[in-house]
Write a structure and sequence with these properties.
- This protein is α/β, with parallel strands linked by helices.
- The chain has a single domain, classed as Amidase signature (AS) domain (Amidase signature (AS) enzymes), CATH 3.90.1300.
- The chain has 15 helices and eleven strands.
- It has an eleven-stranded mixed β-sheet, with helices on both faces.
- The two termini are 27 Å apart.
- Bound molecules: glutamine.
- The site of glutamine (GLN) has 14 residues, from loops.
Amino acid sequence: AHLDRIAAVDQDVHAFLHVDAEGALAAARKADDDRASGQAASPLAGVPLALKDVLTTTDMPTTCGSKMLEGWTPPYDATVTRRLREAGVVILGKTNMDEFAMGSSTENSAYGPTRNPWDLDRIPGGSGGGSSAALAAFEAPLAIGTDTGGSIRQPGAVTGTVGVKPTYGGVSRYGLVAFSSSLDQPGPCARTVLDAALLHEVIAGHDPMDSTSIDQPVPPVVAAAREGAAGGLAGVRVGVVREFSGDGYQPGVQRAFDAAVRQLAELGAEVVEVSCPHFDYALPAYYLIAPSECSSNLARFDAMRYGLRVGDDGTRSAEEVMSLTREAGFGPEVKRRIMIGTYALSSGYYDAYYGQAQKVRTLITRDFTAAFEQVDVLVSPTTPTTAFRIGERVDDPMAMYLADLCTIPANLAGNGAMSIPCGLSDEDGLPVGLQIMAPAMADDRLYRVGAAYE
Ligand code: GLN
């Protein structure tokens, strides 16, 4: 049924870069057989899923939305991919994304934009717009995204779906093509909080193949989602982040958010305002740290090891071939980030830019620590505006970066955060996202509060 749905709508939505109908049907038949013999691999055995094209798969290409990796099929599965297969989840295909996960609209994909199913002239968010659009268009009930600065949560918000960035280290990065290694985190995308929790438990947990993977039990997110859905929020303290409102926030977004906060109070939560003064500096710190790490990580695309090779006609040096390949293979946003990052890390500037940004990162972590002494979770709008029009921000990187204003602090500090739908803006009728943030390794709180609200 989902393959039929993809065939019917994906020429308009363009959520997928690759669909593996044969592989999906074979996995589905196996799941059926296992279930018939009473051996279902997991509660999600047989459930279809859309996988962001930044996680490696041995049976499908992995392009990261870039010409650089066109036609490259990886020699190994990401740990997330492996765990999905072991759980009997049916991988339908790979979803569109901003090139190497850099962007907030999926317009930076080398393979053309994904469109928002709510309004095909609008963006589905980014970088994981394909995964969230696939859910909103009912092309898949589950998806995987990755979140470096908001790429699971912001697409979730603007497509009216659920997206969770787990605690950094909670889900393995092995086989996730690196953008900014200290920030990147895979996570679940779904249409309900409980679905996201079930997927979270399949993909999370310690992995010796990822040196930053946390060797602790996975937070009990499924139990928390069930508890939240069954009960209210009595005894839960919710902090509204003061800094994430005012100028730049669409009134329709603000009103939907305010209504959500009132509903949390009606559910029994104790709601207070909390100040996190350094959150205002999260965006500039991120746009130094992420490009710095990206400039280092993307050095591996040297025309020798992966995918594209341009100008290798026997007359040119390896350096010339590398240069021609990187010129042709990377799009404008990726080049901008490599240049900013290379500059920020260069000798003489390192302390002034990268070093300062890392200090700001520590201050933001301290803001979270202080806030979580007063409250159990923090809330804010996920993103200041609803889905903007395709093309509207492509020539204005600063306007594009503002989409991540509220999501970035959790990446810098490493704690978990979730976006869930909180109604439609009364200005344009488009979905608004409620962001919930919890302390590190307390991801279960996100699910309890999210499921109670939902
Ligand atoms: N939009 C942000 C960026 O462009 C976040 C990307 C992400 O989370 N992968 O960097």
